[in-house]
## 1
Amino acid sequence: MNIRQKLLTIIEQLPDEKLAILLNLALFLKNGKESVQLMLVSQAYQDLLSAENDIYDELFAY
């Protein structure tokens, strides 16, 4: 299974509130105008890694 297929499989399983966080991060990455350092402090990235959000574990479980 390639990366795109794995990501699509994961996306299909996520609830809307986690999809919203993933969308924010994906848009940030797509724009690519800011540096990686700025991404690390972005709200989308902080939400992705927050303790109350297990999306990080779900994304990297495969």
## 2
Amino acid sequence: MRRLFNEISTFLLGRKCYAVIVGERGSDRYDICSQIHFTKESAAAHRHRIEETRTYVYIATVTFRWKRK
């Protein structure tokens, strides 16, 4: 029953996607990463890779719906 509900909601609303927002260290500039993730785990793994760099700082993960046509 849950899978049926998920399939119907995906058809009507679109697929749930995640995007990571980062900021440059030492500036007020914020950007969205060029990768769109389709699973929360993939977005979390990308977040951990960003936190290891010295150039960027993690700001937030944005969730949105994407409907292909």
## 3
Amino acid sequence: MKVNQLIDRFTHNWPQKLVCFVFALFLYLFYHMSQVDRKTIVIPLKVYDQGEVMLVSNIPSSVKLTVRADKNNISSIKNSDFTASINLNYLTESGNFRVPVVLVVSDSISALDPLEVKMSPEVIDVTVDKRITKPVSVEVQSFGETAHGYMLSNISVNPPFVNVTGPASIVNTLDSFKTSTVDLSDATKTFSKRVSIQNTNKVISLENVSDYSVTAEFEPVISEKNIEAVKLIPMYLNDRFEIVSEIPLFFARISGPLLTLESFKPEYINLNLSFITEAGDIEVPVNFNVPRGIEVVEKSADIIIISVVERPEAVEIEDRSEQSSSMLPMDFSFS
């Protein structure tokens, strides 16, 4: 009987009672929501890939959090109270995977009530590849012109290789890495310089990128030069003689350091005729002296022939001398 009465009371005017219940629930939710505020936070996304594979695809650098909490507490919530990350260390094969984003909330924030946190995105598509380490050659990057008359004979880097770690699909395509630039402007002597290795690919890492040295070696530029129309000047010929033949011009081709060749401009060569003691066709050596380091590749003559005759006045003097020496002394007597 009592149960029936209870049911009758519950069902009596039930439409009005339902309306009152819904209205009361609405008031409760409205009050509750009026005490809760919302805040949007963007935090960086960390990637843990120190295992057998590495991330090779582009992924978001951050995630967005929508935080709902009591108005009195919402201002105390900071970005540093959250960390978001994906963990790839458990993967062992290359391929495409969907990886959940792990959100960690600080203990001080976790204790808040009410607290609601929504994260976007919650899952990220990633492409990973096997991690390998491989030595790759290093090339010197230089600029500038050496000093005039000098050339770069050799340039080297030590060590000549750098160990590269990264995804196999990328590392296996690498041929070389370049050093920071080395200035060769106006250089004439060998020098060494500390350099670093340039790496613009964030997916790969290089070992000891600053522990490199470049040595540049220089040497004079070797060239050739034609020596043309040099006069041969007779010197020290005895006054008894005179030259009756034409003395030719001298020609030569020389080789050596460019700067020395540029400054070597002979206009004449002296012929030493002091050894001539009689007239005739005389062989005279042509002494073509060149600076140290210069090589005579070709020359027009080592010896020239000149015709020498005695001067007429010298012959006449000689004849008179012979005549006077042949005359006998005469004695005169008077009685």
## 4
Amino acid sequence: MAGNEGLSLGYRMWWSIRRLVLTVFGPAQLGDDDPMENLRREREEKIRQARERRGG
């Protein structure tokens, strides 16, 4: 993920930790219930909200 996209340092660190844990210990891809995809969608939503707040 390039840049901070308006996300706080704490959120970016926590997201990276969760991603690492899911990569190492998480379940296999589960179609519509894939935990990694859910994590990506959550981050995309946060980025979209941050851009709206900035007016971009």
